[in-house]
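Dear colleague,

Following up on yesterday's call, I've attached the two folding results inline so they're easy to grep. Please treat them as preliminary; we haven't cross-checked anything against experimental data yet. The first protein's sequence and structure tokens come first.
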Amino acid sequence: MPRTQFDLPRFFQALGDRTRLRLLNLMGEQEVCVCYFVEILDAPQPKISRHLAYLRSAGIVSARREGKWMHYRIEVPPHIGAAHILRQTLHSLKNDKAMQSDRSRLSKACYSPARYSLEGAPLPMAVSEVCCDVRS
């Protein structure tokens, strides 16, 4: 089966939305359940799911189901230039105050799910193979 060509314009469009950047920021080097995105971004689940679907179609994230929970993580795009841009974007997000605030809220949610009314939700898991080595 022939491999489809990477859609570079779609990749750039995916990065051109603040909500999608916030989602990528929260994923960083870990896998995160949709329920945490909903709480931290204070947005309706359908809106979050729509943005995650866009990121999936752009080849930036992958998903897996665990029971009723959907987990998302960042994937390395197959296009070398896009992979570099994604790494740089993630690195830049680490310095943004609003993005730092989101990550802080996620870390608090990880330690206290009941605080965000997420009882029973699985905790975010660190991804064993870091896709975009953007550690500070």
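Below is the second protein, in the same order (sequence, then structure):
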Amino acid sequence: MATTLKNKLEISPTGSALGARVTGVDLTQPLDADTAATLNQAWLDHIVLIFSHQDLTQEQQLAFAANFGTLGTRSRSVDRRPEGADYHDGVMLVTNKKDAAGNYVGSLPDGEMYFHHDMCYMPQPHKGTLLYAIDLPSTGGHTLFTNMYRAYDKIPEALKKTLAGRTALQVYDFHMTETVDIDGDLTGIHHLSQPIFVQHPVSGRTALYVNRLMTARVDGLPRDESDAILSELWDIAEAPENVYEHVWAEGELAMWDNYCSCHARTDFPATERRLLRRCTLVGQEMIAAV
């Protein structure tokens, strides 16, 4: 059921496992305290919020994001970023667009991308991510979101007991769209162990915190047992009933809670341009669920 405020702000659930569409708000304008509080609660309740028909500059996107926390910065060093000096330190272009010399002007350019949590390989992963669509291909390039609260609830009790208190190794290289070989040399590749079950710092709810792209192994288990468990967890998390597929329109902004959701990208024609602008919110160390 949609929630409507006096100022015409309306929050309508997608009808899927997570997500809500928000109308009646112009993100180019500062938010009053009541609207900001309502959107913060809606974000907590629905995990993903979608705002359509917006025309946002970089500065307006960052100003809106600041209503929900401290703006994040990039983990990728400046000399390895293609965006250039015109962009805020926390902004990333997700695009396959190239400059006149044939170099990509952004990151994560082409093709399908497996489910993942943003920055789970860092000590303080992002609290949230805000992604704004500027140019889109004629087909594909959708974003899939999974509800990791529901994923946790679906895990068999015996497996929950096996994994209680355990951690998993998260590994990521900046060129990855598929999993990395952890038997190789991880020098220069971000990697960190995180709790498998985490407690959301605000809602207090328990969420599953593994993902197909970056989770390499369950710490302390034989490789074959770890692989089997991770495969089962990924299948639970990515089950259709647990997923919202967002089909983008230009001028849409999506924001998601990185503590209790994963996201993925579907394939799209490499010959067609796709350009989205991303910013993030500073997070905290993950809290192991008790």
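For the second protein, one point worth flagging: The longest strand covers residues 128-135.

Best wishes,
A.L.
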